[in-house]
Amino acid sequence: MSARPLATALLLEPSPHTSIASSLAFWTASVTTALARPRVLPTLLYIGVPPPFATVPRRSSFALAQRMLTGLYSLVHRLLSPAPTAAPPIDVRIVFLAADDDAADAAAFGPVVSVDQLADTREWDVLLVPRGEAGYQLQGAFLAATASPGVRVYYVDAGVPAATETEDAELAAASEGDEHSAVAGNHPPPSDCDVM
Questions:
Q1: Is residue 170 one of the residues assigned to a domain?
Q2: Is the residue at 57 inside a domain?
Q3: What is the pLDDT of residues 135-157, one digit of tens each?
Q4: I want to staple 11 with a disulfide (CB 3.0 to 4.6 A). Which of 56, 82, 138, 159 is the partner?
């Protein structure tokens, strides 16, 4: 009989940047710390991330949302790749966090949820939040909304903003126009597939 996956929520703080590339760079330290934690059980990890762009109307935000999800899943894959094969499996799911409850209500049953809604979706075992004021606020909101008994809270490294506006602009420009694809699962690509 296999153990129930450890239900873990990682809540990322809002990025001070408006570009997706700079925001991904900002969150890398938090995600790296979270994924480096020792695991002894299979883990279900929800990563709650506040997008650095407006999520309504959905039609105009779809391409940005897809680009950000691709970037985050690519980051997770890159960080997990060197893990030993004996490590317990980890199932990562990324959800967008609304800036406030009103925004989440406007996107009810959509891809954007509030911290309260995420906290209420399941029974949680572990909560990971960044060190610092933003992380403490996320922790308070999550714990106030969850009915899960005995949630253990751990702190991860806080986001690291670009050192200068020039570095921020360079990160944003470097990814401008890039197209990426993310593939879920453990299936190898077909051998006759052309990569473009």
A1: yes
A2: yes
A3: 999 999 999 999 888 999 999 99
A4: 138
Residue 182's pLDDT is 43
Contact criterion met (CB below 8 Å) for 106 and 59 = no
Q: Name the amino acid, one letter, at 79.
A: L
d(CA 121, CA 83): 29
Report helix, strand or coil for 20: helix
Q: How many domains does the chain have?
A: 1
Q: What percent of the chain has pLDDT over 70?
A: 73
Residue 71 amino acid letter: G
**pTM for the structure as a whole:** 0.80
Distance CA 173, CA 188 (A): 32
Edge-first strand listing for the sheet containing 90-97: 112-113, 90-97, 43-49, 6-11, 126-130, 152-156
Nearest to 154 by CA among 42, 17, 45, 75: 45
Q: Give residue 99's pLDDT.
A: 74
Question: Lowest-confidence range among 21-35, 50-64, 90-104, 144-158?
Answer: 90-104
- Which range marks the domain in which residue 77 is found? 6-175
Q: Do 34 and 72 form a contact (C-beta atoms < 8 A)? A: no
CATH number at residue 66: 3.40.50
State the pLDDT at residue 1: 41
Domain membership of residue 181 (yes or no) is no
